[in-house]
Amino acid sequence: MKRLVSTLKNIWHIEDLRTRILNTLLFLLIYRIGSYIVLPGVDPSHLKQSAQEGILGLLNMFAGGSFSRASVFALGVMPYISASIVIQLLTIAVPSFQKMQKEGESGRKQINKITRILTVVITAAQAIGYLKTMVPANAVLVNSTLFTISSVLILTSGTMFVMWLGEKITDKGIGNGISIIIMVGIIARLPLSLVQELSTRLNGAGGIITFIIENVILLGIVMFAILIVQGTRKIPVQYAKRIVGDKQYGGVRQYIPLKVNAAGVMPIIFAQAIMFIPSTIGSFFPSAADSGLLAQFRDFTSVTYNASFAILIILFTFLYTAISVNPVQMADEMKRNGGFVPGVKPGRPTAEFIDQIVSRITFPGSVFLALIAILPSIAMMAGVNSGFAHFFGGTSLLITVGVVLDTLQQIESHLLMRHYDGLMKTGRIQGRTPVTSSAV
Questions:
Q1: DSSP string over 409-435
Q2: Which residue ranges traverse the bilayer (predicted)?
C-alpha cells in the first residue's frame, strides 16, 4: 500500500503526465455526458428496449448504453472501427494500398483520409438502419422525413466528434484514444451489472457467498486473459559483426517476439458476425425459428451454438494470423540486415522455421481464445445475470485488458523516463501492440 501511494505521488509530481491524465478524464467526461443527450424529436419513453442481446447488445455495450438511449453518440466509434478493418484488409489484398502503407508518413496520412471518408459513408448507412430499427414511429414527435434527414446528419456528426475526442486523447492525453473510449463504454455498464447481480443473490439465489465466489472467479479469468494477451514466444536472432573504420557494429543477439494471440479480438468479431446470421434468418421466418437446428443457433447458451462458435474462432485465428504474420518478409528483412537465427540457414529455411513456430503457438492461442469467448455463455448457464456474465469473457474482456495494459505501459514509460520506479515491483510491464482498430 505504501508503494502504491508513493507511485501515485510520483505520477502527480510529473507535470506533463498529470496534465495528460486530467485531459483524458475531461475528454471522457464530455463523451459520457454526450451519451445521455437524446436525438432531437425523440420521446425516450417510447424507445425500444430490444438492444440488450445479440449483435444489438454488443453494439450497445461498446457504445456505453447510448445505443439503446437513441443518443447523439448512439453509433459511437463502431463505424470508424468497421472502416479501419476494411482499410486494413485492403492493405493486405490491394497493391495500391500496400504501396501507400510503405510510403511512410505521407502514405499514412492518405490512408487516414480514406478511412475518414469511408467512416462517413458507413455511419450514414448505419444511421438510416438504426433509425428504422431502434426508433419506433410513436417515439418520433416531428415530421418523419425531416426527422430522418436531421438525425442522420446528427448521428454522423456525433460519430465524427467521438473520433475527434479519441484523437485528442491520443495527442493530449494518455493511451490510445479510440480504444479508451470503447473501454469506458464497456466499463460504464459494470456498476449496474454488479448491483443487479448482488440484488439477485441477496433475494435468495445463492446469497452473498455466491456473489463473492463469482467475483473471485472473474478475477481469475482476468488474470488468465492477461497471460494470453502478454504471452510471447521469443526467437533469438544473432547479428553479424561489422567493422566500419575504428567502430564495431552488430554482433549482438536480439529476439523476435511472436505473440501467442497475434490475431487479437478479430477472430471473435468475425465469428460473432457469422453466428448472428441464423438470428437474422429467424427474424424473417418466425415459425421455423422456434424449433430445430435454427432454434439451437439462436440460443446463446446451447451446446450447438457454443461448439460452432469455438470452432469458427479457432479457424479465424489461424486465418487472420496467416494474413497478418508474414514469415517470408520477416526472413528477408532479417537477411538484409545481416541477422540469422542460430542453427538455421538464412532465407527460405528461416521463413519455414518461423512459420513452424507460428503454427505451433497459434493452436493453443486459438483454443484459449475460444474458451474465453464462450465463458459468458457458461456463466449464464451457471445462473449468472446476463449483464454481469458479459464481463466473464468475450470481446469486452479482451478489449478492456488490452487497453488497460497499454495505458499502464505508457504511464510506466513516463515514470522511467524521469528516473522514477515503474508500476511493477519487479520487472517492467511487457510491451504489447496497442488495441486500436487492428485489434478491435
A1: HHHHHHHHHTT---SSSSS-PPP----
A2: 21-39, 70-94, 114-133, 145-166, 173-192, 204-229, 263-285, 305-326, 361-382, 388-408
**Does the pLDDT of residue 29 top 90, yes or no?**
yes
Give kind and range of the element (H or E) at residue 9.
Answer: helix 2-13
Provide the pLDDT confidence category of residue 393 given band limits of 50, 70 and 90: confident
Measured distance CA(31)–CA(34) in Å, rounded: 5
Q: Which CATH class is domain 1-176?
A: mainly alpha
Contact 35, 435 (CB under 8 A): no
Instruction: Please classify residue 90 by burial: count the beta carbons closer than 10 Å to its beta carbon, then call 0-12 exposed, 13-18 middle and 19+ buried.
Output: middle
**Helix H or strand E segment including 200:** helix 190-202
How confident is the model over 310-325, as pLDDT tens digits? 898 898 888 888 877 8
DSSP sequence for 372-391: HHHHHHHHHHTT--HHHHGG
User: Coil, strand or helix: which one is 90?
Assistant: helix
423 pLDDT band, cuts 50/70/90, is low
Residue 438 burial (CB < 10 Å; 0-12/13-18/19+)? middle
Q: Which three cell numbers stand for residue 158?
A: 456525433
Helix (H, G, I), strand (E, B) or coil at 237: strand
Q: Is 57 helix (H, G, I), strand (E, B) or coil?
A: helix
Measuring CA to CA, how many Å separate 19 from each of 13, 100, 171, 173, 352? Answer: 10, 35, 12, 8, 48
pLDDT at position 112: 87
For the entire predicted model, the pTM comes to 0.78
- Beta-ladder partners of 377: none
391 pLDDT higher than 70: yes
* Domains of the chain by residue range: 1-176, 189-392
In the chain, what's the furthest Cα-to-Cα distance? Answer: 83
Which of 191-200, 269-278, 380-389 has the lowest average pLDDT? Answer: 269-278
115 Cβ contact list (under 8 Å, min separation 6) = 80, 83, 84, 87
Asked if domains 1-176 and 189-392 share a fold, the reply is yes
Burial 197-211 (b: 16+ CB within 10 A, else e): bbebbeeeebeeebb
CATH superfamily of 189-392: SecY subunit domain (1.10.3370.10)
- Residue 132 and residue 141: Cα distance in Å, rounded? 15
